[in-house]
Amino acid sequence: MSDVLQTLLNLLDLEKLEADLFRGHGPKSDRPRLFGGHVIGQALVAASRTVDGRRPHSLHAYFMRPGDPSVPIIYDVDLLRDGRSFSTRNVVARQHGRPIYQMAVSFMTAEEHFDHQTDMPDVPGPDDLPSEKDRREALVHLLPEADRPRFLSERAIEIRPIDAPSPPTHEPREPMRRYWARTLKTLPADFTQHDCVLAYASDMTIAETALAPHGQTWYSDEVVTASLDHSMWFHRDFRADEWLLFDQWAPSAKGGRGLNFGNIFTRDGRLVASMTQEGMIRKRCDD
């Protein structure tokens, strides 16, 4: 297993402090704030540790303050209800004595009833696309020197974009983004937290979708971005170490906020999850 993937799995292995109270750590990083998916994934792990025999089917969360990568995160889980079919949890993540993130999660027993889904888009498969390493090496010269080491750094989740824009800016295009993703290496056979890995990955690019009509990317120095809220629905079983298609679109941007939606499919076309996020997208002020 690669070092970066093991680092991700270590992030998702929370320390239990006492009943319903957990501590998570961040990766060593020079970034000024935590990656939002880091907190989403850890919060889902914390909630899942308080439920037996049920898997999450939905989560709804708010980012309240930037996360500090230099200190641990405390996750306080409130057991709101355990019914015959559903369990409901509320998770508050805190740093420096203040809440930075809040998430409601609902878990459900497995049942078989009605079943239908939307079709997966007709797109090139992951084997027909360049690897992330090759793609980034071909684009890195477009970025400022200071951004190049981070752009080329190995990641636990490999992404293979379909018709991706070039950073840091590009011509305005449709507010849509599609890419394949999976963990860099195969996960252990006894690994059971695929939902939590996908929750981590769900925040990687979704807010950037709303920047497409404005010719911007994460690497532009003209915008300031942050995740504001985040929701996910888990529909069907999947493995995070097998290719998943992220189909994302952004119907609106206004008032410094962009609204983004997404569906996630397995390679054989099964819809396994859906998500939505509103992100802050502001023009940077020079004053």
Structure description:
Helix content is 15%, strand content 38%. With 287 residues, the chain is mainly beta. It has two domains: 1-112, Thiol Ester Dehydrase, Chain A; 129-287, Thiol Ester Dehydrase, Chain A. The chain has a twelve-stranded antiparallel beta sheet with strand order 1-2-4-5-6-3-9-12-11-10-8-7, with helices on one face. It starts with a helix and ends with a strand.
Question: What is this structure, in a nutshell?
Answer:
The chain is mainly β and 287 residues long.
Round the mean pLDDT to the nearest integer and report it. Answer: 92
N-to-C order of helices and strands: HEEHEEEEHHEEHEEEE
Alpha-carbon distance between the two ends:
47 Å
Shape: globular
Largest sheet: 12 strands, antiparallel
> How many DSSP-defined strands?
12
Low-confidence stretches: none
- Number of helices, where a helix is a run of at least 4 consecutive DSSP H or I residues: 5
How much of the sequence lies in strands comes to 35-45%
Q: Any idea how many domains?
A: 2
| Main structural class | mainly beta
CATH topology type of the largest domain: Thiol Ester Dehydrase, Chain A
Q: What is the H level of CATH, i.e. the homologous superfamily of the largest domain?
A: Hotdog Thioesterase
Q: Report the helical percentage.
A: 10-25%
Radius of gyration: 19 Å
Biggest β-sheet: strands ordered side by side in the sheet: 1-2-4-5-6-3-9-12-11-10-8-7
